[in-house]
UniProtKB/TrEMBL annotation:
Presence of keyword Lyase: yes
Nucleus as UniProt keyword: no
InterPro entries, A to Z: Aldolase/citrate-lyase_domain (IPR005000), Citrate_lyase_beta/mcl1/mcl2 (IPR011206), Pyrv/PenolPyrv_kinase-like_dom (IPR015813), Pyrv_kinase-like_dom_sf (IPR040442)
Keywords: Lyase, Magnesium, Metal-binding
Residues where substrate binds: 68, 126
GO MF term list: lyase activity; magnesium ion binding
Family, as annotated: Belongs to the HpcH/HpaI aldolase family.
Origin species: Methyloceanibacter caenitepidi
Any single GO BP term: oxaloacetate metabolic process
Cofactor dependence: Mg(2+)
List of residues binding Mg(2+): 126, 157
Protein name: L-malyl-CoA/beta-methylmalyl-CoA lyase
Amino acid sequence: MAGRPRRSVLYMPGSNARALEKAKTIPADALIFDLEDAVAPDDKVMAREQVCAAAAAGGYGGREVVIRVNALETPWGAADIMAACKAAPDAILIPKVIHSGDIISAAKLLQSVHAPKKVRLWAMMETPMAILNARTIAARAVYDDNRLDCLVMGTNDLIKESRARALHDRFAVVPWLAMTLAAARAYRLDIIDGVYNDFRDVEGFRDECEKGRILGMDGKTLIHPTQVAPCNEIFSPSEEEVEWSRKVIDAFGRPENEKKGVIVVEGHMVERLHFSMAQRVVEIADQIRELEASLG
Ligand SMILES: CC(C)(COP(=O)(O)OP(=O)(O)OC[C@H]1O[C@@H](n2cnc3c(N)ncnc32)[C@H](O)[C@@H]1OP(=O)(O)O)[C@@H](O)C(=O)NCCC(=O)NCCSC(=O)C[C@H](O)C(=O)O
Ligand SMILES: [Mg+2]
């Protein structure tokens, strides 16, 4: 079973009321209302109230609504989580995760206020220690208190913490992406690529989306509405992929192939694993169609 589409995941500062309203018209698959780095300390409390009111009021259609809280050890973290639970967004995004204990603490807080099970946890992978602990963080997905659904790459913080250079080829970043992706997949989690800061550079952005897609990312985090359409296009299965996948599914569905592990479709060797891949492509394409139809 394919998860829900998470191609385009748009951040907005929780202090920006105009952005929170405009998001209702932007065709992003998911929205992150940020209380953390995009909000100045003096605006934190106002942003918390504004974001929670917006999430509780709804109006975002089929888009996933995610609240990024401040880290638990900050003066705002615990109150952010409590307020976010009441607003019942689709997920709460925990920043600056270091180890699996951060996910356990957040899950306990959610449990203590009886947050509905539909409120999931997402984890920002943006500290060097999170990369080293990626496996044990992702492994929280199989525990009883599991609410973990998705890992989000925080490449700006990773670049800062590691003193790497932020080059367009992402020479320094790719190993962190690949390591975290392996951890996510090992525990059947989704994983979303980091942001592209030069939001006016359309070609550079497209290239970075393509590369993230090639690596296996489910989508990309975004900072500006103009990034949504190209991101959706690049992270959607292409018409050719869907057409080919339907052929593979049809071929394995024929009576003569029912018990076969490997067959030939249009000159290509196709195994049962390709059948599963084809099913996922078609399911995700169907879900994208439904989501886009619901957004009008
Ligand atoms: C980057 C921006 C500050 C640019 O703002 P601005 O110059 O005002 O943009 P525009 O004038 O082009 O805006 C046009 C209209 O679009 C709306 N808008 C802009 N951005 C958003 C958005 N993100 N969501 C929703 N709506 C948005 C404007 O309101 C305008 O609307 P209208 O009035 O109708 O014309 C700005 O885009 C911005 O703030 N982006 C998000 C920044 C952010 O949230 N940063 C934090 C997350 S990234 C991060 O933390 C990475 C991670 O943690 C890591 O470590 O890597
Ligand atoms: Mg960050």
